[in-house]
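Q: Structure tokens for this one, please.
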Amino acid sequence: MNPTREKAWELLTQYNESDSLQKHALTVEGVMRHFAGLYPGEDPELWGVVGLLHDLGLLHNLSPHLGLDLLPRLGLLGLGGLRYAGHNPLNRPPGGTDEAHLVSGCIRCERCYEACPRKVIVPAKIEDGLLGMRSPMLDFNTGNYCDFCYEENGGVPQCVAVCPTEALELPASYTVGNPETGETGDIVIGTAEIDPRTCLAYRLTGCRDCYDACKYGAIELKDEGGANPIPYVIEDRCNGCGACQAVCLSLSSGSIKSNERAIVVRPIEA
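A: Here is the predicted structure, written as tokens:
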């Protein structure tokens, strides 16, 4: 016999006193109920209970209270079996490129959002993946970028420093990009990609904002001395900081119809 919704909430609050985790559980419950309605014959109540108790870290304490039908569903969630449904690759903060590690370890405490001095860390949305929602992602369309806290904290990313579960975790030995020397570093978020169909430079406007913004020599110009230089990305020098995307003006041109800027950082996946 599976626990009722009331019993599930009682168990959750008994073993998990974190307000942020309880809010996260409620969010997942609502999403799971919605998804249950998409599949004929599925029980929204059962799916909702799975959403409330989806954190497998609780199973050590909760297993005596859970029904046999519930355990396999919780196991599927905990192992990430559903996170690929509608999952979009995301630019993650430093130390977050191992997607499975991040999604399973993140408790949605929001400390990384608060710690980010440039405010480029934002919560992932439901359309980016069911179980990844509210986990941290980088949004360079905010007009800022990630310098790995080089300026603010000497190259020690503050998001990593405040993460209580090590969902954001860097190797024991690493170097970050140095905008003063142009060294790329070995922590890579993603790689910039230019769409020539929407790039203003390809329309012979003389735009070179992305080139001017890059501190690591990852963007160079064809016909640099000419009136209309064309930018291109040197992939092995790009660490995905997002400075180029942050300054891209392509969407400000009324003649360009696109859902994204002409230069964007594509995430890497571990």
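A few notes: The longest strand covers residues 190-194. Residues 56-63, 75-86 have pLDDT under 50 and may be disordered.
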